[in-house]
Amino acid sequence: MKKLIVLIVLLSILFISSGQTYEQQSLIPTLEKWLPSEPLKSSLAKLQIPYWGTTISVEERGYYHFVEFILRKSAHFVIFGVLAVAIYLILPKHAFRLLTATWITVLLAIADEYHQSLTGGRTPALQDVLLDAAGAVTFLLIVRIFIVVKPKKRKTVKRKPTKKARIR
Fold this sequence. Notes:
The N and C termini lie far apart (51 Å). The protein has one domain (2-167). A two-stranded antiparallel sheet has the order 1-2. It is mainly alpha-helical and 168 residues long. The protein is 68% helix and 5% strand. α6 crosses α7 (97-117) and α6 (63-90) crosses α8 (126-149). It contains nine helices and two strands, in the order ααααββααααα. The protein has helices at residues 2-18, 22-25, 28-34, 41-44, 58-61, 63-90, 97-117, 126-149, 163-167, and strands spanning 48-51, 54-57.
């Protein structure tokens, strides 16, 4: 039941956030307040991220917009990764459970981008769907590795005491 609640909460967060305009979600005022001295600016200035046919950088966007861009794209990756794990854990165990969780998550990513297209000032992006899918696959692989590597609990079998133990 807890897994289903986590899934419902994640889907609700996605639905609400993709229905908000960019201005409603802007992190710029918060970043300006929390990072007034622009930490790591010289390091971040070396990064250039190709996205939607443009190059996103500190020089092109400015420090706070660039940091916000990185945070937003990281959120895509992480949220859809966690969503994929929640779906995986809810699904019944079967041979294609990992693949099923991946495809359901990708379909939800597509639906999320479509929902964004209905919101003013927001545009759907194939790159975001690909980023969401990458998050899903990464998180699911980590879960699978954890499950495979995790030592199996051995059931302790009660043994009858040997004759020596009974004599004592």
